[in-house]
């Protein structure tokens, strides 16, 4: 399943991925997550509100900081 298919799916929920990374890294909030991912806080907000899909670059960064595999991250998005 491609990233585009996942994000257009009715079951697509990026919050699961964001929340899982926050929990795994024991971060306090989305601001701490944005610092860990090295993105501006509005990027996390847009992803959380489904106005910005999780793209390949941020997906790779999520993998790098969390040690979740790309497959695990994609499954969390589509579950």
Task: Explain how this protein is built.
The protein is globular, with a radius of gyration of 11 Å. It has 79 residues and is mainly α. The protein has helices spanning 3-8, 14-25, 30-37, 41-48, 56-66, 70-78. The protein is built from 6 helices and no strands. It has a single domain (3-77), classed as lambda repressor-like DNA-binding domains (434 Repressor (Amino-terminal Domain), Orthogonal Bundle), CATH 1.10.260.40. Helix 2 packs across helix 6 and helix 3 crosses helix 4 (41-48). It is 68% helix and 0% strand. The model has no long low-confidence stretch (mean pLDDT 89).
The domain tally reads: 1
What class, by secondary structure content?
Answer: mainly alpha
Which second-level CATH architecture applies?
Orthogonal Bundle
- Quaternary organisation of the protein chains: single chain
How would the global form be characterised?
Answer: globular
| Low-pLDDT residue spans | none
Q: Give the N-to-C terminal Cα separation.
A: 12 Å
The first-level CATH class is given as Mainly Alpha
Work out the radius of gyration. 11 Å
Major beta sheet summary: none
Amount of beta strand: under 5%
The CATH homology group name: lambda repressor-like DNA-binding domains
Q: Helical element count?
A: 6
- Give the ordered list of helices and strands: HHHHHH
Strand elements, count: 0
Look at the structure and give the mean pLDDT: 89
Measured as a percent range, the helix fraction is 55-70%
- Give me the CATH fold name: 434 Repressor (Amino-terminal Domain)
Organism: Pseudoduganella namucuonensis
Protein name: XRE family transcriptional regulator
């Amino acid at each position: 399943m491609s990233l585009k298919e996942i994000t257009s799916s009715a079951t697509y929920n990026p919050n699961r991925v964001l929340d899982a990374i926050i929990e795994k890294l024991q971060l306090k909030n989305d601001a701490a997550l944005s610092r860990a991912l090295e993105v501006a806080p509005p990027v996390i907000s847009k992803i959380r509100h489904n106005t910005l899909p999780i793209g390949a670059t941020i997906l790779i960064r999520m993998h790098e900081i969390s040690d979740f595999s790309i497959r695990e991250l994609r499954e969390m998005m589509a579950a």
